[in-house]
């Protein structure tokens, strides 16, 4: 028997509770993982609260990421005792996820826990941090270098934003953090931001072409903010868009793309192939210090997950929520 958080749905009513389950209840898969830690990402908060139709079948164990130890495997890459990390692949949406003491998964979905981290540290990073790694790699691969100018990070105090700031600063970039929490100025400076701006300066409707400022952008919020960021990106600069915390909308024009050669990269962490996953984790392992990780972490229990999910959607959380499932 093991404990898991379960989301139930009946006649449009959704409820969430910790439930004791037998291993036979787990979905199909060739690797059984004993979970050490999971996390609450923005998408987990949507799933747990039911604020968006993230969950595709019920009952569902939420948790789009996990770190743990392989207990049984019939997959060629994994053996009992291997330390592994999982991000995405529809886990926590269509396949029982990480907010559980056990998960049965496809071995193809797993990556090895980087040697630099223990399983808690890997989940301080979690899917938000791994996505930040994908975003930074997109800018670096585009050719944006520290000499090219400032990098804007939106949703700066959130999970993606916090880790993106730390990664960019470690790689030598000058980072400008856009936040709704100006009281977190010290936190954002400590992560490596050189300047903090109020997100209200970006969240109203603006002209499609504005004064050029950003050599690159990591955007976690979408909406007018992403539109304004495009309008302010320098000639041949690039943006990596991964999120919708402000809005799913993208009210802009083609002007920045056809007149300034701006490139907008879409970042998806869920179905990303193994190679970009491992490259993102390699950057995280190289550039994130233990002290930085502690500064962004808040530890919670499985029982606290439903309450904090609402706070995530209200934008009240700073950094990353790590869930000790045991
Ligand atoms: P968090 O909740 O940790 O952070 C989101 C941050 O966005 C908040 O902390 C806040 O930062 C800012 N924010 C919240 N509400 C608004 C608003 N109304 N307008 C503008 N800014 C707002 O979420 P994550 O960092 O985990 O995820 C960020 C986004 O990235 C989410 O939309 C998530 O779904 C998406 N995502 C996408 C992935 C992908 O594969 N594409 C993977 C992981 C995440 P502040 O107060 O500093 O402004």
Automatic annotation (TrEMBL):
InterPro entries referenced in this protein's UniProt entry, alphabetically: Acrylyl-CoA_reductase_AcuI, ADH-like_C, ADH-like_N, ER, GroES-like_sf, NAD(P)-bd_dom_sf, Zn-ADH-like_protein
SUPFAM superfamilies per UniProt: GroES-like, NAD(P)-binding Rossmann-fold domains
Pfam families: ADH_N, ADH_zinc_N
Location of the Enoyl reductase (ER) domain: 12-323
NCBIfam families (alphabetical): oxido_YhdH (TIGR02823)
Name the record gives this protein: Alcohol dehydrogenase
Record SMART domains: PKS_ER
UniProt GO molecular function: acryloyl-CoA reductase (NADPH) activity
Any coiled-coil regions, as ranges: none
């Amino acid at each position: 028997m093991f404990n898991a958080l379960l989301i139930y749905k009946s006649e449009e009513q959704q409820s969430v509770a910790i439930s004791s389950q037998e291993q036979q209840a787990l979905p199909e898969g060739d690797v059984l993982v004993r979970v050490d830690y999971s996390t609450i990402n923005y998408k987990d908060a949507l799933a747990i609260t039911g604020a968006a139709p993230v969950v595709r079948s019920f009952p569902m164990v939420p948790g789009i990421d996990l770190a743990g130890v392989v207990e049984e495997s019939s997959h060629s890459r994994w053996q009992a005792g291997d330390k592994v990390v999982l991000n995405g692949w529809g886990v926590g949406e269509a396949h029982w996820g990480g907010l559980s003491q056990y998960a049965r998964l496809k071995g193809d979905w797993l990556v090895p826990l980087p040697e630099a981290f223990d399983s808690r540290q890997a989940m301080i990073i979690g899917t938000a941090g791994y996505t930040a790694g994908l975003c930074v790699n997109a800018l670096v691969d585009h050719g944006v270098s520290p000499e090219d100018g400032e990098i804007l990070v939106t949703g700066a105090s959130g999970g993606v934003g916090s880790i993106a700031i730390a990664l960019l600063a470690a790689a030598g970039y000058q980072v400008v953090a856009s936040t709704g929490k100006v009281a977190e100025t010290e936190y954002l400076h400590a992560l490596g931001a050189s300047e903090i701006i109020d997100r209200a300066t970006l969240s109203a409707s603006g002209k499609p072409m504005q004064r050029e400022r950003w050599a690159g952008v990591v955007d976690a919020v979408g909406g007018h903010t992403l539109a304004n960021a495009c309008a302010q990106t320098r000639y041949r600069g690039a943006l990596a868009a991964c999120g919708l915390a402000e809005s799913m909308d993208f009210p802009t024009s083609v002007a920045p793309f056809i007149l300034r050669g701006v490139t907008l990269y879409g970042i998806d962490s869920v179905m990303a192939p193994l190679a970009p996953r491992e490259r993102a984790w390699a950057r995280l392992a190289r550039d994130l210090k233990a002290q930085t990780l502690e500064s962004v972490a808040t530890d919670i229990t499985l029982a606290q997950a439903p309450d904090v999910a609402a706070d995530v959607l209200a934008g009240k959380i700073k950094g990353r929520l790590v869930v000790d499932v045991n």
